[in-house]
UniProtKB/TrEMBL annotation:
Domain Solute-binding protein family 3/N-terminal intervals: 55-252
Taxonomic source organism: Motiliproteus coralliicola
Signal peptide: 1-22
Protein name: Solute-binding protein family 3/N-terminal domain-containing protein
Gene3D superfamilies per record: Periplasmic binding protein-like II
InterPro entries recorded: Solute-binding_3/MltF_N
């Protein structure tokens, strides 16, 4: 009898442990190298006052701890991260814009942050655009390869796009007048100017929006709805508690130009 109870207890513990492991989500981010570092334990951490990506890493770390899993985040290129969600069970990627084209391909928790994507131009070669129709007629627009800006514009009949591997590459092409426009989330503008040492006399925001967007944590579609609900509830609690604003102050708000941006 005692043996049977021990076997039953061992079986129950094994089932519990298996279920616990099954609900541990593998979390990825992208494009965060300049705003993050590895701590003594090898964990990805946001650098203080390093901008949006540093803030998002720390926000998701906080979220992971609140749902009861270690805050281990892996860095991966954006396109590979999107492919990974379709191949790897119980995986998640942030920050991903929630667009109609992507809606059914993932499950969503957020928004982590809201933003407006705008067109930027070389201040010495203004395009004079005032709407999207004007933007379609310029010679060339640099877009980051595989991102939602490019997907949106191609879906809306833009035929003048040039792909680059990073926002920084597009910014440099614009400074050199190799393209007429580029797109960037307005919340990334201060960080981009600090990183590339670019002032408003060189590159200007046209104030023509491509679209307003919400950034989310995207999950593979096999993720249980109950787990999605848990993550969403914990994110809402972070926002309601004031912790979200604390993280904004500590990580999102940039250092002054005199102090520079951490590498």
């Amino acid at each position: 009898m005692l043996f049977s109870l021990r076997v039953l207890l061992a079986l129950l513990l094994w089932v519990w442990a298996t279920n616990a492991r099954a609900e541990t989500v593998i979390v990825y981010t992208h494009s965060a190298d300049a705003a993050t570092e590895r701590d003594a334990d090898g964990q990805l951490r946001g650098l203080p006052h390093a901008g949006r990506r540093a803030f998002l890493v720390e926000l998701v770390r906080e979220l992971m701890q609140r749902v009861g899993q270690p805050p281990k985040i892996q860095s991966i290129p954006l396109e590979r991260g999107i492919r990974t969600l379709s191949r790897q069970k119980l995986s998640a990627l942030f920050n991903l814009n929630r667009t109609p084209e992507r809606e059914s391909h993932f499950k969503w928790v957020g928004p982590l942050q809201s933003n407006t994507v705008s067109f930027y131009e070389n201040a010495g070669a203004p395009t004079g655009i005032s709407n999207l129709a004007d933007a379609k007629r310029v010679e060339a627009i640099c877009v980051r390869r595989g991102n939602s800006h490019a997907q949106y514009m191609r879906a809306n009949s833009f035929t003048n796009l040039i792909d680059a591997d990073s926002y920084e590459s597009c910014w440099e092409m614009l400074k050199l007048k190799r393209v007429s426009l580029t797109t960037l989330g307005d919340d990334l503008e201060p960080q981009m100017r600090l990183q590339t040492q670019t002032d408003t006399d060189s590159i200007a925001n046209t104030k023509v929006p491509l679209y307003a967007t919400d950034g989310y944590l995207a999950f593979s579609t096999d993720t249980p709805d109950s787990l999605i609900a848990l993550w969403q509830t914990k994110l809402d609690q972070i926002k309601a508690s004031g912790r979200y604003d604390q993280l904004l102050t500590s990580y999102y708000h940039l250092a002054s130009p005199s102090k520079g941006l951490p590498p």
